[in-house]
Each structure stands twice: as C-alpha cells, then as structure tokens.
C-alpha cells in the first residue's frame, strides 16, 4: 500500500517523451595535446588507450612505461568530434548532453558555445545545450585539464596543507590526489601504477525533447526493510519528472509473481513513495553457500507505457553489535542475513585495470566467479578505487557475493571546503541511488582507514591542528557522507559504518573517532603481520572481524613475460622487479619469510632461480592465507571467547586482496591475467563450508614437549546434519604408509564448530617413533556425507624436512567435456606443494593446486573458462613441480 497521498492536483495525459537520442560514442574522435601527439580514436577511451591503438605509444603496462609516459597526463588534452544532426532533431526545443562518466576535469563546448564544466569522475554529467548552438554540422570539443596539475593547483589554492601531500617514493606516484574526485589509486598505490588517465570513460550522447513533453524517470528502488509482524517488505521507490505538478496512475508489477499494485501518484519534483510487498509472494535472496539468489524484476508503468524497472532481491541485513554479558568486554560485530548469522569469507576488491575501458564484463565475471567457487560470500569494494559499472553489481547479485561498499576515500585527509563537500554530497546521492536496488550490497562504509589515520595521527598533524582535523573528519564522513546515505537509503536493511576499520557503534560513542579504531574487541580490524613469521598465528590479533590482512607474492613467470622481454629483468632483486614493488620493504619481507620457512633455490640458472623464488613466494603467501583463515575460523565461535582478554568470536575474514590492477608483486591471490596464484587455491580450500582444522600449540613445539597438544576441530556451515569420520595420520615423507593413525566419529546436527579432540603431542610423536618433529607431519582426512576434505599440519618448517625425489609425473591428461579436463599424476614417494601450471593462453583453474601427495596417484581437474575444441595437449604446455625441485642444483 502507498503511504497516504492527499490531493491530486490535476490529471493530464502523459505522453512518455518522444525523445531523440544521438550517440557520440565512436572511433572518430580526435585527441591532441597540441605538443607531441594528435590521434584519432575511440570514445569511450582515454589518452593512453587511444594513443596505444593508434600506434603512438607502446603498451603502457610494459617495461618502465608507467614512468616513461608520465608526461601524457602532465598536460592539457583536447578531445573533438564532428557530428551531424537532422532537421528533425533540431526541431526539438530542448537538448541535453549526457556523459555517464568523464575522467575528470574538463570544459565542454559545442560549436564554440559553453556547455559545462566537469570535476568528478564519480557522478554523471547532464548539461543543457542552447538551441541556437546546434546546427546540421557540429563540433564538440572537450578540453581536459591535467588531473595532476589540477590537484596541485587545488592544493595550493586551499588555505592549509592536507596530508599526505604525495605518495611514498616507492610508488612512483603523483601528489595531492585527495583534491580531485577521481579514482584515488590512479595516482598510484602500494600495489599499482600511476597513470592518472584522462578521457571519456562511459557512454556519451545528446538527447532532444520538447519542453511540453512530460517525462517520468525511475530514479531508484530499494528494498528498505522487512516488517516481521505484517510479513511485508517495504520497497522505497523514487521517481522524478521534468514537468510537474501533475498526477499519474502508475502500475507496479513484480514479475513472475501474482503481485501488482496500482495507484495515483501526484508529482511535485522528486516523488518518494513506499510500497509494501507481501512476503508470501517472494523467496529470499541468500549469500553464496546459504541458498539461492532469487531475484525479481519490479516494473513500473504508466497506462501501459513502461517507465522503468529494477532487479531486486529480498533479504534482511543486520550488523549485530551487542554486549556479551558480564565479564566480557566489547561487542560482537557480525552480519546476520535473513536472521541467520553468517561467518564472512571474503576478500578486498580493487580496480581490475588502470584503464577501465579495457576491462571486459567477461573479465569481471571470471574474477567474481573465481571468488564464488572459492566459497566467498563477501567482497569489499575498497575505498581507494572506483564505484564499479552496473553489470558488476548485477553479477554479484546473481553470484550471491555480498558487498561491503566503501565510498571512495582512502588513506588521506581530505579538503572540506564547500565546493568539495557539495561534490561529495552529489556523488553519494548519485551512487546510492544508482546502486541501492542491488541485494548484494549489504553495508556502506564512509572511507578506508581514515578514522585510524586521524586517531593514530598517521600523517604527523601538529597537536595544535588536531581538533580541527578531527572536526573536519566528522564534517566529511558524518555530516556529509553519512547524512547523504541516510537521506537516500532509509530502511533498516543496509547498515552504515563511517570507516573501515572502525569500532562500529563504539566509534560513534567516541564521537566517530575512537581512541583505537583497531581494537580487537569492537568492529573490524586491518592487520598486516609481515614483520613477524606470518605462518605463526600467535602473531595475529584475535579480532571480532578481520576486514584486511594478507601478504605479498610474486606473479608467475608467464605474467612477467607479458611486461618484459628482457630476461635480465627477471630476478628477485632486479631493478625492474623492484620498480614494480610499490611497497618498500615487502620484497625483503617476502625473502625473509621464505628463508624462515622454505628451502632456498640452489640453481645457478637465473631464470630458473627466479621461477623457483616465485613458486616459493606463492607457497609463502598460500600458507600465510591458510594460517590467517584457519585462525579466524577457529575463533569464530562465541565459545572461543577468552574470559581473560574478551577476545574471540571472529565472524569474518576479508583478506587483502583478490585481484590485481597490473603485473607486479602484490597481495593479490589472482594475477592480472586471471591466473590463480597458489594462495587462491589455498583460500578455496580454507573457505570450504565443512572444514577440519588441526593446530599444534605451542606453534612448532618440540617433539618431546609434554605440554604441547594438537587440537582438532570441525567447522560446519551447512544447515543439514553431517555425519563423518576424521582420520588423522602421523606421516613421514619417505613412505606412503602412515606411522600411526587416529580416528574419531563426528556428528553435527547444526552449523557451528566442534572441538573434536586434543591429542597429547609428545605421546603421539613417541608412538609414531618420531623424536624429531622435522621427520613427521600430520595429515587428516574428514569423510562426511559422501564428501572428503583433507588437512595437513606441519610439525616443523618445510625447509627442515629431508626431501627426496618423488618422481612426479603426469600419467594422463584427458578432456572430459568442452571445458573440463582430468589430469592423473603419479609419484613414487610423498611430495609437498605439488604445483601445476598451464600455458598463459589457456585461462581457467585446477580443481586443486599446491597440494601434498601422500598417495602414489591422484587426479586433478582443470576447468577452462572457455570451451576448447581441437584439444591438443601440447598447446596446454602443462607444467609441474614440487618442493623437491627447489633443492636441485
Ligand atoms: C591497506 C589497504 C590498502 C593497501 C593495503 C596493503 O591498508 O587499505 O590501502 O593497499 O593495506 O598495504
């Protein structure tokens, strides 16, 4: 039912605008900097991609081109296009130009008439064009400012310094990015280059109407809240018209249900109304792993003429932050979807390319499906990137990947003058309106790490300026961003936090800047432990929710060869590799971690040596990710809250980061070209819905330590009962026969964590005749409901094990369907970290990888993203290795 609407002003017959649209997209734009380059090219496009297509510059991602071609964005650019209009088009009396996205600061003229100025890539721009300016033959001219110089000028014009003024040297970046509403990481980041693109990046068109036409636009639909008593969903609908006041009879239809509703709506500027949809008409939308993702189209029409529609889903979202009761400090921080507490398994998402016009929907889909098949239920759209295109959110709705959506502010203080705040207000209103129909977006967050930056004074603000800095923080994120979000997103179905990390409600009680926004007893935490041994979880905080954590690794040799043909560039410490390492100290840290845990390459062949380092860095990252995930999952249960420290009940991990923006050493688990790193396979395993965990306490205890114990747990997220047997074997690497084996029946009637047993370590090792922990390890297998999942626990760092040649061989490689292949592998003795790889031309993923073999033969699947006909094994270039290979000279 509608909320009550009173008077109907007057009825007029609405002809839904007979408009005329002329697209300005095309290959016939001319761009020039009036100095070095003039080229013809395609819009949507940017300076770099147009010059590349025209053969004037090489691939910007290759070699040192990120710095060589920096001059391209230090200057002004002019984009022009000639276009014709018909006399019919010119007969309309009102014409606009619409730019869905322009990057960023520009001045637009048509036939010399001023049309408008743009300052933000985060809002679309619509400008009126004077009728007298248009002719049969026209020229549009867009004069772009250099984003780099614009940011500099704005920073100079601003009355105080806003830190950080520049990026760290290692990033080869640009300065003052907070002064321009443009993808923050386009000025460089600690995993990405600085290209600061200039151009028209989405649709651009002219549209003509007659001023007397009445148009009704659907602005947004939001499934705002659920009334459990009435059993109805409240959907908030926003409409607008250019020509009110008037009234209209609108019909709302929820397609594929019997529900529809008709009502007379009086229009006076924007119209907001709420409709109630009975729960019995719809099925719920569930996150990946918890049920189906049912989506419905809600269509609105006016006397049979469609106005618009949105695809919506029905789910409730609660961010539960409640006290635990006497003796336990802090509050919980977890998502409850449709009243079901959900442990979050996810990652952080960054832009997939510096040039969005070369990111295909297919690429986005493959990345998101790589998350979905790795059992992820949430991604965080990180605040240093972009608001993604519409199709991205359609995919996350469909795949059940919930989104934690930051607004685009990251790792900086920001200006707060009126024009800037007005731009931010407009941006937030626009983005929330555009995106709020999507069931997958379950939380908004004001910024990335800026509460922590203020609270912990990351940028060395003088004490005298601290109060002003705090006030400015609140002015931007509370009075501007939050107020705008709440103006648009009115229900209870999408919580808002001002920052990530924050202490949630506790941050609010501390006036939005908590003393320690990284407290492990409240809200979410970002933690990077690269200074310690990252395999050792005792170095991690036990937080309520870990929204960032991870470690770097190197991408594959295939990926390096995409950006350099110079083999001398390919070594761990080459100037080229170090040039691509944007976080100083991380290459050394990677090396230190590898040395702590793994054998070092012995080969003198430098390329082979680098290939092995890459493999080791990926093992290091994979083992780190597994450690972090296991640690969070073990502590997820409320029963694991430590009475002394109040820590525990970790209800999610979103590791840093799933995707890459270019080819470089980074924290990603998927390479730029979509190849999964070993860590992605480990995450897929560690995020399994039913999962055995084995831990040794103290970490890597001595075999004779009488106090040491092995704890065994089963985590179950399935709502059906599980019945199974957990068999754990103490093994050595010289034989397939286990030394001793321990079995336990497990039965779980509901989701949760079952602590299966504690095994006395010294006794176990004695019985296994394993007096040196580096001679043995434990391998467990959990068989339940016809499924099997394994788990390996090292008793010592892998570098301490004596490795002998397992004679790893590919026994057979068969195609079983257009997209799927089976590979049979044999070994003569146990093998650690078995790694399979295929040619760079084949994109897809193995059913597992980086695994250990404790049996003579095993079969691994390979799934190709595209169907492959004329299968030829040679084209695959199937490669394999295990840890033993690193020990070879
Ligand atoms: C966090 C993120 C990013 C950064 C990452 C790795 O702080 O929010 O800013 O890229 O760590 O350093």
UniProtKB/TrEMBL annotation:
Signal sequence coordinates: 1-19
Coiled coil: none
GO cellular component, one term: lysosome
Subcellular location: Lysosome
EC number(s) stated in the UniProt entry for this protein: 3.2.1.25
Keywords attached to this entry: Glycoprotein, Glycosidase, Hydrolase, Lysosome, Signal
Superkingdom: Eukaryota
A molecular-function term among this protein's GO annotations: beta-mannosidase activity
Reaction it catalyzes: Hydrolysis of terminal, non-reducing beta-D-mannose residues in beta-D-mannosides
Primary localization: other
InterPro entries from the UniProt entry: Beta-gal/glucu_dom_sf (IPR036156), Beta-mannosidase-like_N2 (IPR054593), Beta-mannosidase_GH2 (IPR050887), Beta-mannosidase_Ig (IPR041625), Galactose-bd-like_sf (IPR008979), GH (IPR017853), Ig-like_fold (IPR013783)
Domain called Beta-mannosidase-like galactose-binding: residue spans: 29-202
A Pfam family per the record: Ig_mannosidase
Gene Ontology biological process terms from the UniProt entry: glycoprotein catabolic process
Domain annotation Beta-mannosidase Ig-fold: ranges: 804-873
PANTHER family, per the entry: BETA-MANNOSIDASE
Family: Belongs to the glycosyl hydrolase 2 family.
Protein's recorded name: beta-mannosidase
Organism name: Adineta steineri
């Amino acid at each position: 039912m509608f909320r009550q609407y009173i008077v109907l002003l007057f009825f007029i017959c609405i002809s839904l605008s007979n408009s005329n649209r002329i697209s300005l997209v095309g290959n016939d734009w001319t761009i020039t900097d009036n100095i070095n380059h003039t080229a013809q090219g395609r819009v949507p496009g940017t300076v770099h991609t147009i010059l590349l297509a025209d053969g004037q510059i090489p691939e910007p991602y290759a070699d040192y081109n990120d710095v060589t071609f920096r001059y391209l964005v230090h200057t002004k650019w002019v984009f022009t296009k000639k276009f014709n209009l018909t006399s019919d088009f010119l007969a309309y009396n009102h014409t606009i130009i619409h730019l869905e996205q322009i990057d960023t600061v520009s001045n637009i003229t048509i036939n010399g008439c001023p049309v408008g100025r743009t300052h933000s890539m985060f809002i679309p721009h619509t400008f009126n064009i004077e009728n007298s300016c248009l002719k049969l033959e026209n020229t549009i001219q867009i004069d772009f400012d250099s984003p780099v110089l614009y940011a500099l000028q704005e920073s100079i014009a601003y009355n105080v310094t806003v830190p950080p003024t520049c990026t760290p040297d290692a990033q080869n970046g640009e300065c003052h990015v907070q002064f321009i509403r443009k993808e923050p990481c386009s000025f460089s980041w600690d995993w990405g280059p600085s290209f600061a693109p200039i151009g028209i990046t989405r649709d651009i068109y002219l549209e003509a109407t007659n001023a007397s036409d009445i148009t009704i636009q659907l602005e947004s639909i939001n499934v705002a809240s659920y009334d459990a008593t009435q059993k109805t969903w409240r959907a908030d609908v926003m409409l607008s018209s250019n020509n009110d006041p008037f009234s209209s009879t609108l019909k709302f239809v929820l397609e594929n249900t019997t529900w529809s509703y008709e009502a007379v709506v009086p229009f006076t500027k924007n119209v907001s109304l709420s409709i109630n949809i009975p729960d019995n008409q719809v099925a719920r939308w569930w996150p990946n792993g918890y049920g189906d993702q049912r989506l419905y189209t809600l269509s609105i029409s006016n006397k049979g003429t469609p106005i618009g529609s949105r695809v919506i889903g029905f789910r409730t979202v609660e961010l539960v932050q409640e006290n635990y009761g006497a003796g336990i400090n802090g509050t919980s921080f977890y998502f409850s979807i449709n009243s079901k507490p959900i442990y979050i398994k996810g990652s952080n998402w960054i832009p997939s390319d510096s040039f969005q016009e070369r990111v295909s929907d297919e690429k986005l889909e493959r990345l998101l499906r790589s998350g979905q098949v790795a059992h992820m239920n949430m991604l965080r759209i990180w605040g240093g990137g972009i608001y993604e295109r519409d199709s991205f959110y359609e995919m996350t709705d469909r795949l059940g990947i919930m989104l934690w959506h930051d607004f685009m502010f990251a790792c900086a203080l920001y200006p707060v003058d009126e024009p800037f705040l007005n731009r931010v207000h407009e941006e937030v209103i626009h983005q929330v309106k555009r995106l709020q129909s999507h069931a997958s977006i379950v939380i908004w967050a004001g910024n990335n790490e800026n509460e922590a930056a203020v609270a912990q004074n990351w940028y060395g603000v003088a004490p005298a300026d601290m109060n002003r800095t705090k006030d400015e923080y609140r002015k931007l994120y509370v009075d501007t961003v939050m107020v705008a979000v709440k103006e648009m997103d009115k229900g209870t179905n999408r919580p808002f936090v001002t920052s990530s990390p924050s202490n949630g409600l506790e941050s609010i009680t501390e006036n939005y800047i908590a003393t320690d926004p990284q407290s492990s007893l409240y809200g979410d935490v970002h933690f990077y432990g690269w200074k310690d041994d990252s395999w050792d979880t005792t170095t991690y905080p036990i937080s309520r929710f870990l929204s960032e954590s991870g470690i770097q690794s190197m991408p594959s040799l295939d990926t390096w060869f995409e950006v350099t043909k110079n083999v001398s560039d390919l070594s761990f410490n080459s100037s080229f590799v170090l040039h691509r390492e944007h976080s100083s100290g991380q290459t050394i840290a990677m090396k230190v971690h590898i040395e702590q845990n793994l054998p070092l390459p012995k080969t003198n062949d430098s390329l082979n040596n680098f290939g092995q380092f890459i493999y080791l860095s990926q093992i290091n990252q994979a083992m780190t990710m597994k450690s972090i995930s296991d640690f969070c999952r073990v502590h997820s249960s409320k029963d694991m809250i430590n009475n002394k420290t109040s820590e525990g009940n970790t209800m999610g991990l979103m590791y840093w980061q799933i995707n890459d923006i270019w080819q470089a050493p980074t924290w990603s688990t998927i390479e730029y070209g979509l190849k999964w790193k070993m860590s992605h396979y480990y995450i897929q395993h560690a995020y399994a819905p039913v999962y055995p965990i084995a831990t040794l306490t103290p970490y890597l205890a001595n075999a004779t330590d009488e106090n040491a114990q092995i704890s065994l747990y089963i985590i179950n997220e399935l709502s059906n009962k599980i019945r199974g047997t957990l068999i754990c074997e103490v093994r050595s690497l010289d034989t397939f026969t286990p030394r001793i084996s321990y079995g336990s029946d497990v039965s779980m009637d509901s989701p949760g964590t079952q602590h299966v047993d504690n095994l006395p370590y010294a006794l176990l090792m004695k019985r296994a005749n394993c007096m040196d922990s580096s001679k043995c390890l434990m391998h467990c297998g959990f068989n339940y409901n016809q499924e099997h999942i394994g788990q390996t626990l090292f008793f010592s760092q892998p570098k301490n094990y004596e490795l002998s040649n397992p004679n790893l061989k590919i026994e057979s490689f068969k195609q079983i369907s257009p997209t799927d292949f089976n590979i049979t592998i044999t070994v003569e003795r146990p093998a650690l970290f078995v790694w399979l790889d295929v040619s760079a031309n084949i994109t897809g993923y193995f059913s597992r990888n980086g695994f250990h073999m404790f049996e003579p033969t095993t079969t691994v699947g390979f799934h190709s993203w595209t169907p492959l006909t004329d299968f030829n094994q040679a084209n695959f270039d199937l490669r394999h290795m295990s840890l033993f290979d690193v020990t070879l000279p």
